[in-house]
Design goal:
The longest helix is centred in the first third of the chain and has 16 residues. It contains 13 helices and 17 strands. It is 31% helix and 19% strand. The protein has a 5-stranded antiparallel sheet. The protein has 3 domains: 202 residues, Sulfite Reductase Hemoprotein, domain 2 (Alpha-Beta Complex), CATH 3.90.480.20; 143 residues, 2-Layer Sandwich (Sulfite Reductase Hemoprotein, domain 1); 82 residues, Sulfite Reductase Hemoprotein, domain 1, CATH 3.30.413.
């Protein structure tokens, strides 16, 4: 199953990128040369827009793969796991509902990108001044609290925007999120453009927010439209992008996000400009988005796999796992399961085992969650013992831990990231071990407590939205500098 439509022209872009990679690999790199500096700058801008980031170890790269709404099928995820064998053999699940593979070499990128393209996956817009991955709650469409399922709109909007040249040449990166109710677990009010599902006078639509964001300068968004019908989603989005393209700051990357434009212009003037643009665009019926519901049906395929019984000694652990990680969907007889991962990582071999099991239930059963975990859906209860047994065989799953430990978020930090100051993974492991081995706390009582850690002020670990947030900074004492954390 392919969830979003990738433009056919992307294959030409992959070929052009591959040519640039070959030229870069075979060119001389004199760090003192102005020509080398110019070449490095141009090549970086090109590869980053395709989601290719150099890691801390020079010559190794991370690839970020777009998964709108966290959607990825078992067959697609199997291919990602296979591609990870070119580098570090594991799949990383991010706080922005994407997957990443690490430790890659430039020489392998053409093959990796081409294989991903043919299974309906792309890294285009994984970085740079582009429209980034569009988010929505991992349980949208199955939660009993949804106003309506917003995930089809995240997918359709993605398919529309990634066809447009303007989406790849913005003043700065642009993030969009949907929430299916005002609990806003997708943090739509902490992103550039947010849509929250509402129902007004028996009509479904969105309340629209603008100018939010985390990072070094966090900002809660402003209301832009109290209500737009669902079919006016694209005109509203395009109106915002047009105004941002025209008035956004392209001179300084440190003040070019749309939240800075809101601070400078003010919501009143900005809203006036967007409304004028919106009123023009909404007249064109071709701008209406109409998702195809059959693509997003929440149901399980019939399967005849053998139901696995559990040894009696594992029953208590199974019951605890059900309580912590399993919830009933609004679809009768189907269940959603949170797979809690250690730092968002799943070994390639374990990813393949999981996907081989999930293919028994169809293609619409995986979502990447914002807490660096996996959210499964559309699984009949009778097969949960099979899943529990499989997960217990994996290296990086926290099957028998509390949700407090399983939902701790950390970025990779200085372990691989060039911007990292601290190493949050090590801190998370230390916190995990000390709480388990040196405290008398009942960690299952901490279900509503969130601890997030970022290796620098950029908030990839979403430290601003946690109950306890850490972010890395440079400490100074007696003329010496050292890595340290600020605690929020």
């Amino acid at each position: 199953m392919v969830f979003y439509e990738i433009p056919v022209l992307l294959i030409d872009e992959i070929s052009a990128l591959s040519t640039s990679i070959d030229e870069y690999i075979h060119s001389e790199h004199d760090s003192s040369s102005s020509e080398t500096l110019e070449m490095e700058t141009k090549f970086k801008a090109l590869r980053v827009a395709h989601g290719i980031y150099e890691q801390r170890e020079r010559g190794t790269y991370m690839l970020r793969i777009r998964c709108p709404g966290g959607f990825i099928s078992p067959e697609q995820l199997k291919v990602v796991a296979d591609m990870s064998l070119f580098g570090t053999p594991e799949v990383h699940f991010t706080t922005r509902q994407e997957v990443q593979i690490h430790g890659l070499l430039l020489k392998d990128m053409k093959e990796i990108l081409s294989v991903l393209f043919y299974v309906g996956l792309s890294s285009r817009g994984g970085g740079g001044n582009t429209v980034r991955n569009i988010l929505c709650p991992a349980d949208s469409g199955i939660s009993k609290n949804s106003v309506f399922d917003v995930s089809p709109f995240a997918i359709c909007l993605t398919s529309k925007l990634i066809r447009e040249d303007e989406s790849w040449n913005l003043p700065r990166k642009f993030k969009i999120a949907f929430s299916d109710n005002f609990d806003d677990i997708a943090y739509s009010r902490a992103t550039c453009l947010g849509f929250i599902a509402v129902k007004v006078n028996e009509e479904y639509g969105f309340k629209v927010y603008i100018g939010g964001g985390l990072g070094r300068h966090p900002r809660i968004s402003d209301p832009l439209f109290d209500f737009i019908p669902t079919n006016k989603l694209y005109p509203a989005t395009k109106a915002v992008l047009n105004v941002y393209n025209q008035y956004g700051n392209r001179r300084s990357k440190h003040s070019s996000r749309i939240k800075f434009l809101l601070n400078k212009m003010g919501i009143k003037e900005f809203s006036t400009l967007v409304t004028e643009e919106f009123n023009k665009l909404k007249k064109d019926e071709s701008n209406e988005l109409l998702p195809e519901p059959e693509l997003f049906a929440n149901e399980a395929s019939e399967t005849d796999i053998e139901i696995q019984s559990l040894p009696e000694k594992n029953q208590d652990k199974f019951d605890a796992w059900i309580k912590r990680c399993v919830s009933e969907q609004k679809q009768l007889g189907l269940y959603t399961i949170k797979i809690m991962l250690r730092s968002g990582d799943l070994l390639a071999t374990d990813t393949l085992k999981l996907c081989n099991f999930l293919t028994n239930f169809g293609e619409n059963n995986i979502r990447c969650d914002r807490d660096q975990n996996i959210r499964l859906r559309n699984i009949p209860f009778k097969y949960l013992s099979n899943l529990f047994t499989i997960l217990n065989s994996f290296k990086n799953t926290l099957v028998n831990e509390s949700t407090f430990l399983g939902e701790m978020i950390n970025c990779t930090g200085a372990q691989t990231c060039q911007l990292g100051i601290c190493k949050p993974r090590g801190l998370v492991e230390d916190i995990h071990n000390r709480l388990l081995n040196n405290s008398n706390l009942n960690l299952d009582d901490l279900t509503n407590l969130k601890l997030n850690i970022s290796g620098c002020p950029n908030s990839c670990g979403m430290h601003h939205v946690a109950d306890i947030g850490f972010f890395g900074k440079v400490g100074k004492k007696d003329g010496d500098i050292y890595p340290s954390y600020n605690v929020l």
